[in-house]
Write a structure and sequence with these properties.
alpha/beta, seven-stranded mixed sheet, 221 residues
């Protein structure tokens, strides 16, 4: 792990050492769109699904229960969060189908870690806004998505339909948790999709509070 990655990992561990115990309860009402994304993952039978920034494992458990024929992998840079994820996966009886990996979303090498080249589905739920070199993470996730596969992101949006003061207050509050909504997420995702000839679909929810993007790669020639 690079020095920059190690510094980020340490920062995330400090942030979540205590918060991880109340994370799922406290985030339940404002991390909107996660369940919709999971419902639309639809991996193929026997498919491999990777979550970037899996946190407490909440999404992995929900997705693994919904798609019993798929295999799931969760990547996170925070050892503290992975402790919660490990416990959640174990309690759900899914240890045989869910693999957790500690690592940097910009550097993750699945061949070295898992002997896997790519994934049929890759998704990121409110994690891009917490990765400092986030544009690299987006492009790397796209590269990890197999031909014919899909890469999905749900994130804080631009809140276009909100009053300016309300938007500023939200962003200031999120900053306390090291969250930075990515104002250029859409063009970066569009560019990454164009590089591989993929199709991009986007939806905004709650007057721009949420941006949900799904990029579908074409099948290999």
């Amino acid at each position: 792990m690079s020095s920059h990655s190690a510094a980020h990992a340490a920062a995330m561990d400090r942030l979540y050492r205590v918060q991880r115990h109340v994370y799922d309860i406290s985030r339940k009402y404002y991390l909107i769109g996660r369940d919709r994304m999971i419902a639309e993952l639809a991996p193929p039978p026997g498919g491999r699904v990777l979550e970037i920034g899996c946190g407490t494992g909440r999404n992995l458990v929900a997705a693994a229960r919904r798609y019993p024929d798929a295999r799931f992998y969760g990547l996170d840079i925070s050892r503290e969060m992975l402790r919660s994820a490990e416990a959640a996966v174990r309690r759900a009886g899914l240890s045989g189908r869910v693999t957790l990996i500690e690592g940097d979303a910009t550097l993750f090498d699945p061949v070295a870690s898992l002997g896997i080249q790519s994934f049929d589905r890759v998704f990121a739920s409110y994690s891009i806004s917490m990765i400092p070199p986030w544009t690299h993470a987006v492009r790397h996730a796209m590269a990890l998505t197999a031909p014919g596969g899909a890469f999905s992101v749900v994130e804080f949006g631009l809140c276009e339909g909100w009053p300016d003061w309300c938007r500023r207050a939200l962003y200031a509050w999120l900053a306390k948790f090291r969250v930075s909504p990515r104002e250029t997420l859409m063009p970066v995702m569009q560019a990454a999709a164009a590089e591989v000839g993929a199709t991009l679909k986007a939806v905004t929810l709650w007057r721009g509070y949420v941006t949900y993007i799904r990029v579908e790669r074409p099948e290999a020639d």
